[in-house]
Amino acid sequence: MRRTATLIAASLALSLTALAPVGAHNPSEQGERSNVDVAEVVREIDAVDAPDPGTYIVGQSRLTRSSDGLKAKVAVHNLEPGGVYTFWWVVPQDFEDGAPVIPSGVFVAYGASQVIGNSGTAVVNMRAHTGQAGIDGFPPLGGAEWKSLDDPVNSIVRIEIAYHGQVTEAGGDLPTWRTDFWTGSACPEVGATNLAGQPHCPVYLAATHLP
């Protein structure tokens, strides 16, 4: 996967709004602590080429935590019909005033992708396993290190969603658009920047789950 780790650049550069979970802490079948909570998917920035910039709340993320890892079911509306979207895990080690602390360890991993139909809605299921390695192959940003998923129960978890452009523009590159954070007609070329000053696909939708 080519340079997908740049997703975290947006998280490290932006001031993020942390949303408190709505849910309960329930014991798992093994008697271990688990956490199920719901967070709104919100528009955090009006990124380059992002459709419908006036829409704020666009969906809901339901996160299930256990000692085995993370599962999420994400339902989003008001998306661009025919748009290619990717969904990502971002788990910063430390947060302060709603933003990741630099330097800090960050787990970043691909979660899912979807080409949006005429309804403008998407429902995706994501999973990350405890001990799974974060994306590597890209230099650490601001002293941050890419980490494995070590503490899924007690960590802040972010679901971040990127818009890559219209599927009609993807052609034979569609498989890459759906897995690589650098590609798509809405993604600046390497060396260019979006409104957040970062050279990657615009991250403008996210859900933040607190432990």
Most strands sheet: 10 strands, mixed
Order of helices and strands: HEEEEEEEEEEEHE
Percent of residues in helices:
under 10%
Shape: globular
How many helices? The count is: 2
The strand count comes to 12
Overall mean pLDDT score?
A: 74
SS-derived structural category: mainly beta
Unreliable residue stretches? 1-33
Rg value? 16 Å
Strand content: 35-45%
Number of domains: 1
N-to-C terminal Cα separation, in Å? 30 Å
Report what the structure shows.
With 211 residues, this protein is mainly beta. The protein has one domain (4-209). It is 5% helix and 41% strand. It contains two helices and twelve strands, in the order αβββββββββββαβ. The chain has helices at residues 7-13, 174-177, and strands spanning 22-27, 33-43, 57-66, 69-76, 83-92, 95-96, 99-100, 105-115, 122-129, 145-146, 157-166, 203-209. The strands form two sheets. Strands 1, 2, 3, 4, 5, 8, 9, 10, 11 and 12 form a ten-stranded mixed β-sheet that branches. The protein has a two-stranded antiparallel sheet with strand order 6-7. Strand 1 and strand 2 form a beta hairpin. The longest helix has 7 residues, at 7-13. The relative contact order is 0.28.
